[in-house]
Design brief:
This protein has 518 residues and is α/β, with parallel strands linked by helices. It is built from 19 helices and 20 strands. It has 3 domains: 188 residues, Rossmann fold (3-Layer(aba) Sandwich); 115 residues, Cytidine Deaminase, domain 2 (3-Layer(aba) Sandwich); 119 residues, 3-Layer(aba) Sandwich (Cytidine Deaminase, domain 2). A 6-stranded mixed beta sheet has the order 8-13-12-11-9-10, sandwiched between helices.
C-alpha cells in the first residue's frame, strides 16, 4: 500500500465520520478538518489539524472561504507520478492529501422547508465542498475521494487490506461527479423558479434531470431489450416509484408501467375504488362501499382481460378483498396499505407482487410529464385537469342529463382521462361497462366499447376523450343503448353531432377540456 500521509474531512452529514477518522488515524494519517466537523472529531478524541492552521490562512467572509487555498487544491491536484508536480509542490510547501471525505451543505433540505428565504437558500450553496470534491475526483489516481458515508467502511477495509484498486478509485470519482452534477442542477432549478418575471420558467432553457438507479430489470419491454428502473430524486408524491415491495417476484418493466397507470387512475376518486389495468389500459374500474365491493364490480367489466392484470386500490386491502384477489391470477396489487390478515392471504401466492404506497390523501400532485424521442425530449405539465361540478357545464341538447346520468358521466370522464386515445368509456354510476381504447378512428372506439361490454349497456352513459368529428359515433352509441354523452366539443360538426344526440333523445355535456393520452 502506498504511504498515506494526510486526509481532509469536512462534512455536513456526520454519519460515520468519527469511525472513518479513527480508522485513518490508526493507519498513521494526519486529519485536516474544518468547523463543525473538526469539533465533532475532537469531542470524540480524534486528533485533528484545522485547515486554517495548515494553510496559514484564517477562515474569512463568515466562513465563505475556508478551503479555497493552493495548499489544499495543490495537495489534491498534484500528480505524484510526475516529477515536476512533486518538485513544484515541495517548492511551495504543499503536502499531498491522499484521502478526502466531503459532503455538501444541505441545499435540498434547506430549500424544501416552507419558511426558507432566498437569502438562506443562497447561504446553503456550498462552494468549497464541490471544489475539493472535483479536484480530488479529477486526481483519483492519487486521491481516494468519498462523498457518501455508505462508502466509508469499505474504503477503510480496502486500505487496511491493501486492496485499493484503480476500479474502486474510478467508481468513487464517478460518484462524486454524479453527486456534484445533481447538486448544481438543484441550485440551477431553484434559481430558475425564483425568476418570477419569466413566464416560461417552468420549462427552463436547460432541463436538468436527476434519477438514481434502483434496480436492474430482467429485461425491458421485450426479452431482447435490457432494462433498468430509476427513481426521481427528491420526489415525494405517493407513487409506484416510491412504493415498498412487501412480497412477490421482482417487478418487470411492464409491471411498472401498468402499476403506475392503475395507481394514477385510482387517485382520481374520493370514494373507495379499484382499478384493473392490462397492457397499460384500464379494463375495469368501479366504486364500492368497500375495497372488495369495488374490486368485484371492476372485475365484472371484463373478467377475461382482468385475468393476469394489475390492480390498484385507494383504500387499505382487507381480508375480504384479499380472498377475491387470490381467487384468480393477478400480477401486481398496489394499495395504500394491507391488513395483516390480508397480507397472509395474499402471500399464499408466491409470485404475486404487493406494493404499498402509503396514504393517498391528501397528496400534492404536480410535476412534469416527459416522453423521450430519439435525440430529444418533449415535456408538458401532467394532465391533472379536473371537472368539479358537471352541472355547471354547457348542455347543448334538448334533454338535460338526469341525476343518475350526471353521476355516471362524472365517473366515466375520470376513467376516460386514463384510457389511450381514441378513448371511449361506457359506464353507469360508479362502474365501467365497456372500454374502447387506442383505435385510429373514434367510431371504432365506440363500437369496440360495445363489443367489449359484458354487462348490459342499455341505459349507460358514454365518455369521449376528444370531440366527435362526425355524427357516426353518436349513432353507434345510441344503437348500443347509450342515453347520455360527455365530451369536450369543439368540432366543426358539433351542430350535426348535437342534432344526432337530439334525434336519439340523448343528453350531452360539453366539457371544453380534452384528455388525449398517446
Amino acid at each position: 500500500m502506498a504511504s498515506l500521509k494526510r486526509a481532509l474531512i469536512s462534512v455536513s452529514d456526520k454519519t460515520g465520520v468519527v469511525e472513518l477518522a479513527r480508522g485513518l488515524v490508526a493507519l498513521g494519517v494526519e486529519i485536516l478538518s474544518t468547523g463543525g466537523t473538526a469539533k465533532t472529531l475532537r469531542d470524540a478524541g480524534v486528533p485533528v489539524t484545522d485547515v486554517a492552521a495548515y494553510t496559514g490562512s484564517p477562515e474569512i467572509l463568515d466562513g465563505r472561504v475556508k478551503t479555497l487555498h493552493p495548499k489544499i487544491h495543490g495537495g489534491l491536484l498534484g500528480r505524484r507520478s510526475i516529477p515536476t508536480h512533486v518538485a513544484e509542490m515541495q517548492q511551495h510547501g504543499i503536502g499531498a492529501i491522499d484521502v478526502v471525505a466531503v459532503n455538501l451543505y444541505p441545499f435540498e433540505t434547506a430549500t424544501a422547508k416552507p419558511d426558507c428565504t432566498f437569502e438562506h437558500a443562497i447561504e446553503n450553496i456550498d462552494i468549497g465542498g464541490p471544489s475539493m470534491l472535483r479536484s480530488a475526483a479529477k486526481n483519483h489516481e492519487d486521491v481516494l475521494v468519498m462523498v457518501d458515508p455508505a462508502d466509508y467502511a469499505r474504503v477503510l477495509g480496502a486500505l487496511n487490506a491493501d486492496t485499493v484498486t484503480p476500479a474502486l478509485r474510478r467508481e468513487l470519482a464517478a460518484k462524486v461527479f454524479q453527486h456534484t452534477a445533481r447538486y448544481d442542477s438543484l441550485i440551477a432549478n431553484y434559481l430558475e423558479r425564483q425568476r418570477e418575471e419569466q413566464p416560461t420558467v417552468r420549462f427552463p432553457a436547460i432541463l436538468s434531470l436527476q434519477y438514481e438507479r434502483v434496480e436492474m430489470l430482467r429485461y425491458g419491454e421485450n426479452p431482447h431489450q435490457q432494462g433498468a428502473f430509476y427513481r426521481e430524486l427528491g420526489a415525494r408524491e405517493p407513487s409506484v416509484s416510491r412504493a415498498k415491495t412487501l412480497h412477490g417476484k421482482a417487478m418487470s418493466y411492464n409491471n411498472y408501467l401498468d402499476a403506475n397507470s392503475a395507481l394514477e387512475l385510482v387517485k382520481e376518486f374520493d370514494e373507495p375504488a379499484a382499478v384493473i389495468v392490462k397492457h397499460n389500459n384500464p379494463c375495469g374500474v368501479a366504486h364500492g362501499a368497500s375495497a372488495v365491493e369495488a374490486y368485484v364490480r371492476a372485475r365484472e367489466t371484463d373478467p377475461v382481460s382482468a385475468f393476469g392484470g394489475v390492480i390498484a386500490f385507494n383504500r387499505p386491502v382487507d381480508l375480504a378483498a384479499a380472498k377475491e384477489i387470490t381467487s384468480t391470477f393477478v400480477e401486481v396489487v398496489v394499495a395504500p396499505r394491507y391488513d395483516q390478515e390480508a397480507l397472509a392471504e395474499l402471500k399464499r401466492k408466491k409470485d404475486l407482487r404487493l406494493l404499498e404506497v402509503g396514504p393517498l390523501t391528501p397528496s400534492a400532485r404536480d410535476g412534469m410529464d416527459l416522453k423521450k424521442l430519439i435525440g430529444g425530449l418533449i415535456v408538458q405539465d401532467r394532465d391533472l385537469g379536473v371537472l368539479k361540478d358537471l352541472r355547471m357545464l354547457p348542455v347543448p341538447t334538448k334533454r338535460r342529463p338526469t341525476d343518475e346520468e350526471f353521476a355516471a358521466c362524472a365517473f366515466a370522464w375520470k376513467v376516460c382521462k386514463h384510457v389511450k386515445s381514441n378513448a371511449i368509456v361506457y359506464a353507469r354510476a360508479g362502474q365501467t361497462v365497456g372500454i374502447g381504447a387506442g383505435q385510429m378512428s373514434r367510431v371504432d372506439s365506440v363500437r369496440l366499447a360495445g363489443m367489449k361490454a359484458v354487462l348490459p349497456v342499455k341505459g349507460c352513459v358514454m365518455a369521449s376523450d376528444a370531440f366527435f368529428p362526425f355524427r357516426d359515433g353518436l349513432d353507434a352509441a345510441a344503437q348500443a343503448g347509450i342515453t347520455a354523452v360527455i365530451q369536450p366539443g369543439g368540432s366543426i360538426r358539433d351542430r350535426e353531432v348535437i342534432a344526432a344526440a337530439d334525434e336519439h333523445q340523448m343528453a350531452m355535456i360539453l366539457t371544453g377540456m380534452r384528455h388525449f393520452r398517446h
